[in-house]
Amino acid sequence: MIIGVPKEIKNNENRVALTPAGVAEFRKNGHPVYIQSTAGVGSGFEDSEYEKAGATILPTIEAVYEIAEMIVKVKEPITSEYALIKENQLLFTYFHFASSEPLTHAMIERNAVCLAYETVEKADRSLPLLVPMSEVAGRMAIQEGAKYLEKPMGGRGILLGGVAGVKPANVLILGGGIVGTQAAKMATGLGANVTIVDVNLNRLRYLEDVLPANADTVMSNEYNIRQLVSQSDLIVGAVLIPGAKAPHLITRDMLSLMKKGTVLVDVAVDQGGCIETCTPTTHENPTYEIDGIVHYCVANMPGAVPYTSTLALTNATLPYAIQLANKGWQQACTQNEELKKGLNVVNGKIVYKAVADAWGLTYTPLEEVLN
């Protein structure tokens, strides 16, 4: 199978979908790899390293899409890429269809095969291709939140961990999954008082056991959240429903309960956001204020630390990508239930129910497409 890796062109997205080591693995399995020139530079990989590993460097994104049977990316295609996508071309990347109706319609119209990293799912319901970026995003949420709590950045002017004789900041984390757990680890490590909420009592019991004494767990419901937001200095949205829009746990009216200069970091923004007033921002313009509340809603947070993120992501995606290349997407998805759940749009049909439900579109059972 011919593999193509275009350069990411989303705002300040410096990750790349394949490392030179990944190229070597594809070549070992007999697959030619075409990399767009400078695609890996943002992550610290020069064209010469890819060439040494056996890749062919192409000068333009158009050339990569034209030759490839499988496109391996990090982020969803943006508008300028839509017309480059060919019928039956396999795209393996993060899509987050439930947060973008135009993207959903575009992929339907292109008759592409869209296999989404974020819905590849193991039997235990874990999401192996979302985990590494969730770990990065969770840790970054505290790093960025701490920065924007500084007064020159619009925040309350609070040091997250406080000092002797001065109380530390209060951090509220909505969701106890991978993002929330990593955020809690970072925040507690910096000395903040942390409260993490979730609807799963078993998860809260686990977090109670593994997190240090400066972390509390609380059952997630509207009443408790309304009480907690008034006391919090930094609030992290870390809610995920695989393939679907995140629910709004913080609504517009709750901003009036918060202290001026409170910082909101919505890690779920690429799935529609769990904070009603959050809309996607970029690394170039990461924040905005509403009613004196700072909103940080960058949709590709891990893109700010591309070296770490690229290595973490490709460690997880490469084994699946090799399977797709060796067997073709139909056989690979038939034999591997994890990959099968990654299929979202196939040849003009939506085969992932949560995506169809998000936009009121027709759902086609995957069995009809694979048979």
From TrEMBL:
Sequence ranges assigned to domain Alanine dehydrogenase/pyridine nucleotide transhydrogenase NAD(H)-binding in this UniProt record: 149-297
Keyword entries, A-Z: NAD, Nucleotide-binding, Oxidoreductase
Catalysed reactions, semicolon-separated: L-alanine + NAD(+) + H2O = pyruvate + NH4(+) + NADH + H(+)
InterPro entries linked: Ala_DH, Ala_DH/PNT_CS2, AlaDH/PNT_N, AlaDH/PNT_NAD(H)-bd, NAD(P)-bd_dom_sf
A Gene Ontology biological process term: L-alanine catabolic process
One function term, GO molecular function aspect: nucleotide binding
Cellular component GO terms, alphabetical: plasma membrane
List of catalytic residues: 96 (proton donor/acceptor), 270 (proton donor/acceptor)
EC number assigned by the record: 1.4.1.1
Residues binding substrate: 15, 75
Residues annotated to bind NAD(+): 134, 198, 203, 220, 239-240, 267-270, 298-301
Pfam families reported in the protein's UniProt record: AlaDh_PNT_C (PF01262), AlaDh_PNT_N (PF05222)
Domain Alanine dehydrogenase/pyridine nucleotide transhydrogenase N-terminal: 4-137
Coiled coil: none
Family: Belongs to the AlaDH/PNT family.
Protein name: Alanine dehydrogenase
Species of the source: Runella defluvii
